[in-house]
Amino acid sequence: MAVYTEVPDEELETFIASYDIGQVRALKGIAEGVENSNYLLHTTLADYILTLYEKRVNADELPFFLGLMEHAHSGGVPCPLPVKNRAGAALSTLASKPAAIVTFLDGISVRRPTAAHCAALGAALAQFHTATASFPMQRANTLSLAGWDDLASKIACDAQIAGGTVAGLVPMIHTTLANLHGAWPQNLPTGIIHADLFPNNVLFLGTTISGVIDFYFACTDMLAYDMVICVNAWCFEPDGSLNVTKAQALLQAYHKIRPLRADELAAFPILARGAALRFLLTRAYDYMHCPKGALVKPLDPLEYARKLEFHNRIMKFEDYGVRV
Fold first, then answer.
1. pTM above 0.70, yes or no
2. pLDDT digits (tens, 9 = 90+) for 103-112
3. What is the helix (H) or strand (E) element at residue 193, kind and residue range?
4. Helices in the chain by DSSP H: which ranges?
5. Alpha helices (H) along 76-202
């Protein structure tokens, strides 16, 4: 989450008047994340999250994201529920941007997840995959292998001009891409994946998950790929080592709800390299193109370069030392 677009007071009052959510008491920008402009909205009735969708989000895909949240919520996933205005629409316009309001969820995101947090996350991810199996809409993953080629080319071109940190990552990026093209799995179970389930997108009360948020990378892809994204995001220590205890807690909790197939486990190292490369690429691109004046700090691409180096040394799932 972040703030790129400021909302004029008069426009906000007119916008909120089209909803049955009371009157505005306060609007506070949320300065985390990198994609959209997000605000904590306090009204006389309750608290909400107001999102203005920036240019990186395709407005035509917003019905998918909002419909997915509604479907997941109805399936028992603890996620925000889109709020519809008096016309019955969950999507509107504010400050010349597509905008939506969703319910506010109590809880905090954890900076240093424990094994208990990872177990809760594994169970929640499997619940999400199970609940959304009946969701009728699909969305292609534009940030999968084909999309990585285009992004890598842009990064290489820009890095050649700018130099610095990102330029040193270009050889690793090209080598990894070439290897993945020859090994990327083709026939694993697919469905709706969250695709961005980092610790800042999960809210906890203690070690119980109270909210899964930020569905704006959700798409149709391999379910095991979603799980590997979570392992990369939740189970590595600051020194770049994999915390096997955390990874095992996450995978075992997931496996109890949606049993993992043998071919999914066999593909784990390749999927892990792909997941590491995906976030290395987007972080490197954002590092070089962060808008001036935005209340957001670009995330470190080197973190995912280190994770990619780790996975490049792993040849088979058993080498991780994790039991499912």
1. yes
2. 999 999 999 9
3. strand 190-193
4. 9-16, 62-74, 115-131, 145-162, 170-181, 223-234, 244-257, 262-266, 268-289, 301-312
5. 115-131, 145-162, 170-181
